[in-house]
Specification:
Elements (H helix, E strand, L loop, with lengths): L1 H20 L1 H21 L8 E7 L5 H4 L11 E7 L3 H9 L5 E3 L4 E3 L4 H13 L5 E3 L7 H32 L1 H6 L5 H31 L7 H22 L6 H18 L11 H7 L3 H15 L7 H21 L4
Parallel strand pairs: 1-2, 1-3, 4-5
Antiparallel strand pairs: 3-4
């Protein structure tokens, strides 16, 4: 056991030294996400967007299309409608409190935040068509776009660093014959993979912490939940994404093919995992596809902790999914790994 641990530590240390010596890659990992966060903070600090967003609480047996013929308000063309199952009313009301929705409507009442300028306009449109509908005000502070965005940017940076930093590196090792030479040493495949995962995990946690702290010092993000809970989500998410990178690189020896496959995985996750925009109101099949990606669960859990003060128990479905995906990726990667 002692010899095994020594071999893992030696491989881990060698990988860390290799990364530190690559100054350009190290600088890019630290500076790029900070520049993106700061850029978006100032680009979107000029006020609210012009599009109204209204949540519609649906009865158990009705759809939005079925309600429209009998509810004049739901035919207003200037509003983006988000269909919400009735069981998700508490979450939807929190969205109203945070100005995520300008108004929440049901057939028996509506909820609006009196401090929301857009909510007041939508309320006037509602009362013009349904004047007798009971009103329930909800108080809450608005969430800036950058407060909502930061969790997605941190997760996206982790994804690129995990997939390309691990997957591409191992493919390069295989192509240049490094793995072939390591095969002649007492180092086993499992020890090598553990060392690679541990090295990249330390890097991802360090980079994410520095990026968050540096960006927070400039912009002052909203943080409603526990930093410890956020750290647990980021660590588990990083492990899952690293394991996915290892799975991709388990047998591939072509850097070009590896790069194409990694891009094929990463870009759909960027657009469908909620990094840049919310999937509320998207087609159900789009939301279903998004649940396949580990990045979706990392972002959803981190965003809930940061903007809503959620606890680990409340984001446990995302944590269990990430844990299960990590176990599957590691098992398949170890089973299919080859040195040459």
């Amino acid at each position: 056991m002692k010899r095994r641990l020594e071999r893992i530590l030696a491989a881990w240390s060698a990988r860390n030294r290799e990364f530190v010596r690559d100054r350009s890659a190290m600088a890019w990992n630290f500076l790029f996400p900070i520049l993106v966060v700061v850029g978006f903070a100032y680009a979107f600090s000029g006020g609210e967007q012009s599009l109204f967003k209204v949540g519609v609480l649906l009865p158990a047996d009705r759809t939005l299309e079925q309600l429209r013929p009998t509810e004049p308000f739901l035919t207003t063309p200037q509003i983006q409608w988000v269909a919400i199952p009735g069981t998700e009313e508490p979450q939807a009301r929190r969205q109203v409190a945070r100005h995520g929705y300008d108004l929440l409507w049901s057939s028996s009442r509506y909820w609006v935040n009196p401090t929301s300028p857009k909510g007041q306009i939508v309320e006037k449109l509602l009362l013009a068509s349904t004047p007798a509908l009971p009103r329930e005000p909800i108080q809450g502070e608005p969430i800036r776009y950058v407060d909502w965005l930061i969790s997605g940017l941190l997760a996206m940076n982790m994804m690129f660093s995990a997939l390309f930093g691990v997957g591409y590196t191992i493919v390069r090792y295989r192509k240049t014959g490094v793995l072939k030479r390591l095969k002649a040493t007492p180092l086993t495949a499992a020890e090598f993979l553990i060392a690679q995962m541990a090295s990249r995990l330390v890097l991802l946690v360090s980079v994410s912490t520095i990026v968050y702290a540096g960006s927070h010092a400039l912009i002052r993000f909203r943080m409603q939940g526990s930093y410890l809970d956020l750290a647990v989500v980021l660590v588990l998410g990083a492990l899952c994404l690293i394991a996915l990178g290892l799975l991709v690189a388990a047998r591939i020896s072509s850097e070009e093919f590896a790069g194409g496959l990694l891009n094929l995985l990463s870009w759909p996750m960027i657009f469908l995992s909620g990094v840049w925009f919310s999937l509320d109101g998207a087609h159900p099949w789009v939301r279903a596809v998004a649940q396949v990606f580990p990045l979706t669960h990392v972002i959803d859990a981190a965003r809930a902790i940061m903007t809503e003060g959620a606890t680990l128990a409340q984001v446990s479905p995302q944590l269990w999914t990430l844990g299960a995906l990590t176990a599957v990726f590691v098992a398949l990667g170890a089973w299919s790994f080859r040195w040459e």
